[in-house]
What we know:
Helices cover 17% and strands 41% of the residues.
Amino acid sequence: MPLRTENRLGEPCWIDLVTRNPAKSIAFYAALLDWRAVETGAGSGRYTMFFHGDAAIAGLTAQDPSSGNRDFWTTYLATDSVDETVRAARAAGAAVLAPPQTVGDQGRLAVLTDPAGAAVGVWEAAGHRGFGADNEIGTPVWHELITRDFTAAIAFYEEVFGWTPIPLSDTTDFRYSTFGHDESMTGGVYDADAMLPPGVPSNWQVYLGVADVRASAARATELGGAVLREPWDSDFGTFAQIADATGAVFLLGQVEPSPRA
Length: 261
């Protein structure tokens, strides 16, 4: 698997899971995606890193089981300066959930809520660059913002993170843009205001790559997870929405095995 060495400004560069039951979560992803968990030690808050092969793929941190909070994945966007990004985000209408903080010699992070209500992380890399690989089986393959205010969300990420949105569809039935730099596609934004149930906020969701979505969805159920949306085929591939063994939601996306694997 080729290692990824660079994340450009505003692109998704990392994901991590907050879970009430780390052991259960680790066992689920190890069995489903062949991830290997490595605890980084007390100096980094007992943060756990997931690897697929030699490549760092994601992180995990524990939350208090009595808090009543759901388990969830967070997407982080790359920045050259967390402090400057947070200042710009505040000026553009964001709220700050977790203020800028240093994580040992690995980098600096913050967590924001964009003007449409979606939580998103910001990562300024030092020792830890982010994903070691992506767009392969067992790695993140797509990142998607599901938003209740499409216009405000697009404007915010253009201003703060330098996105170049490319409309894929712009009708009242289906409004979707990809984003990236120089017409590259690193993720998408979906106008979901008419689709989200009452009380469900805008949110980021991650797609994880597998060789066979239908088989992996069935396996997720065997491992204690649930299929929230049955596998479906589209012009862009085959997908399914999954809740893992503790309830954190993600999507499966089908990818072809790498010829380098």
